[in-house]
């Protein structure tokens, strides 16, 4: 069968052909991914795990999405950290009564 998963970051879809037998054992949680598919690369296993779990980030975006996630000293030039560092919106100053 063909397994596919869509990247949450760039929305591209990766697909992979696997054998039905190992796939069914794995999707029913009767086998670990590395036991059911010992010949797949790490990227291909990520695709399978993303397909089953409903959340997938492709290997091309992995470095972007997870880069410097737990670094204390992140430069302000990083567009990902800038979105988390927005100033307070002006409407928060309005009185409630
Ligand atoms: Zn991607």
Task: Please tag this protein with its features.
alpha+beta; two-stranded antiparallel ribbon; 5 helices; 10% strand; binds zinc ion
Characterize the structure shown:
By secondary structure, this protein is of the alpha+beta class. It has one domain. Helices cover 37% and strands 10% of the residues. The protein is built from five helices and two strands, in the order E-E-H-H-H-H-H. The protein has helices at 20-27, 33-36, 42-53, 59-66, 79-82; strands at residues 2-6, 13-17. The protein has a two-stranded antiparallel sheet. The structure holds zinc ion. Residues 7, 9-10, 12, 58, 60-61 line the site of zinc ion.
Instruction: Compute the separation of the termini in Å.
Output: 61 Å
Number of domains: 1
Q: How would a textbook summarize the main sheet?
A: 2 strands, antiparallel
Helix content class: 25-40%
Tell me the radius of gyration. 20 Å
Hetero ligands: zinc ion
What's the total count of β strands?
Answer: 2
Share of residues in strands = 5-15%
- Shape estimate: elongated
Q: Spans of 5+ residues with little confidence (pLDDT < 50)?
A: none
List the helices and strands in order: EEHHHHH
> Strand pairing plus helix content: what structural class?
alpha+beta
User: Biggest sheet: strands side by side, in what order?
Assistant: 1-2
Average pLDDT number: 83
Q: Enumerate how many helices there are, as a single number.
A: 5
